[in-house]
């Protein structure tokens, strides 16, 4: 029986938001007000599409974007944690479910040599078009009222588990590691043996603690982390069970 580790990416594996980091490539490292103010809640992917057009129009090329993205720092302790998971891969299946995009995640993981560690990456598809502009699409369509329109992480997790079950893979426990508001929906899907690991001080932790105060706690256990060393300590206990 393996354990399934589900990671968010921005502010979880890396210590920044990859989508806002790319603004370092823009002229004067900022976006015009009109573009910045064009974001509508729940429509982040469309907004990023406009940001990528702006960067393209200002002559920002793929290699410059790649160079910039691979300077994003990993979260404290994360490199050690990923090394530990790699050394114990027979115990862990590992997936990323992220609202970033395929190009950014690919660049960052490959540059740090962590690409092979993850069994699957579920994120918004992205590619460079014939004019050399980065384009991004919604991951899927769904009918979940709680989630942004391009991605319901619960649906992704459920479909992945169903597919694994068809292949005879059943997990002893799911460990969900994340930080954001869009991580709440999949965490509410977890069962009592599973573990949610929200990052301390971030939206997911605040929402989970509010649910507990409202006497409506989630079914799974909750273990807060501030450094990936906290996650590693827990995983070491798991491997001894």
From TrEMBL:
This is PHOP2 phosphatase. Signal peptide: none annotated. The keyword Glycoprotein does not apply. Belongs to the HAD-like hydrolase superfamily. PHOSPHO family. Keywords: Hydrolase, Magnesium, Metal-binding. One of its GO terms (molecular function) is metal ion binding. SUPFAM superfamilies: HAD-like. The keyword Magnesium applies. Its cofactor is Mg(2+). Substrate binds at residues 19, 99. The active site is at residues 8, 10. Mg(2+) binds at residues 8, 10, 179.
